[in-house]
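Bug: token stream looks shifted between consecutive jobs. Job 1:
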Amino acid sequence: MSGPTLVTGGTGFLGRHLLTALERAGTPIRVLATREPRWRAISPAEFVTGSITDPAALRTACAGVDTIYHLAGLVSRDPDDQARMYALHVDGTRHLCAAARAAGVRRIVLCSSSGTIAVTEDGREIPDETHPVPLGLIARWPYYLSKLYQERTARAACAEGGPELVLVHHSLTLGPGDERGSSTLDVQRLLDRQFPFTPTGGVSFVDVRDVADALVAAMERGRPGESYLLGAANWTCRKFFDRIADLSGVRAPVVTMEKHLLRWGGAAVDAAYRHVGRTPPVDRATAEMATYFWYCDAGKAARELGFAGREPAETLADTITALRHGAAA
């Protein structure tokens, strides 16, 4: 009989939905978390308390484990979080792969970002997994650069005698249950009328529940060493803002700001707010990123994993409802 499945990052937005999918399938689960969640009493999962950066905790968490879903990390656009993101994404992944190899783990599914592959200047191309790494772009944003190095670290570590590695790269993840607000922040900003303008870029998004199901499929059917992009809709920011406005009744920004003005203005506003010790309504990184196109082609995941994103309007409606009535709605 195979051992349990370990989930790192199981207490986060995507992690909670993955646990639900695994529980539904009857999979024995072990969760590594820095602290026990308040909902532990209602979950059948076994919990190990510890950090992804602690080799001793990882040895305990990996003992007897057959497979691992690696979701642990930090989503942040704050440049002050750079060192922390590298510690979690790169060093933590290196320690996890070493512990997994020593424990005889069979397979790891690593959850990364579509932003390490699928971001372009003009949106004319919709990248798939064969697209060259857009290093010149993502080097501007510590989160995506740390995720790229995480992927490379995992590939190198798992090439040295296993485990098998499958990478899943999801786009902006929306839906109910984002208690920390890390993924649905921009929708909340729109509902709070904090965007005074509409950017000229484009966004790809996907439902968190569909990503959770795709992770399970990647564990079962993903090919070792392969990457899979997940995205359900590729929309301009104008379409994204307008659709949220239609569903929420909150008016979308009327003014569209050109990319060169937004990149310069976003930096100026960010600096001005921070100079007086205040948080800007839209930070510099968000303003700059919104001038690029984050479209992705999920055809490979559809063919090999059976991925099928639900209707985008359902995802947006459920996101809005959750944000207005509590993240778990």
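Job 2, same session, no restart:
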Amino acid sequence: MSIAENVARVRANIARAAGEAGRASGEILLVGASKMNDAAACRAAIAAGIDALGENRVQEMTEKLAQHAYDGAPLHFIGHLQRNKVNQVVGKVDVIESVGSEELLARIEARAAALGLVQDVLLEVNIGGEDAKSGFAPEAVRAAAQRAAALEHVRLRGLMCIPPVAQEPHGSVPYFQRVRALFVDINENLYHNRLDMLSMGMSGDYEDAVRSGATVVRVGTAIFGARDYT
């Protein structure tokens, strides 16, 4: 199937899942996770009406920016961001979804201040407590959100998570529900309902994420096809 056909199919699945949860499909932002896909594939996704594109790797993102791969769509950084690469990302993307430490938050604030801009971010929650993944522990994310509120050049938009790989159908749902509860608490009690992004769900579980309250889903292989890691 073509990228356009895949985008249409994913949107239909989102609409169905949203309807099952009593939500409108327009509430959900579809981010095409374009890692390892070239500029032509990015342009095809934009032509198909993707809401935004998301990149995982700074070098790949930089190369495709030079090729104008993302023209016409917002760009999110969705991968692990090393502190020494902050300068290459701040101001180049619309949203940094993967802010997983207060040190990284401070680096982003400093770079945004130097550029005279406000950088939109999400706080990444390591909801499964996995050593191999970055992100705030669930019990630490509220304090990080308070810290973000005090920064002048960072604007917190919400939370993001990547749950452990599910071992059974719908296995991600309990993790999604926990992150949703954190989002609601922070949004209502700290941010006066100003947060608007809850980024959960990828190709294998985005429908469950929508049913669980996600407002952003990051879909790669279901749009662009299987990645070739060889």
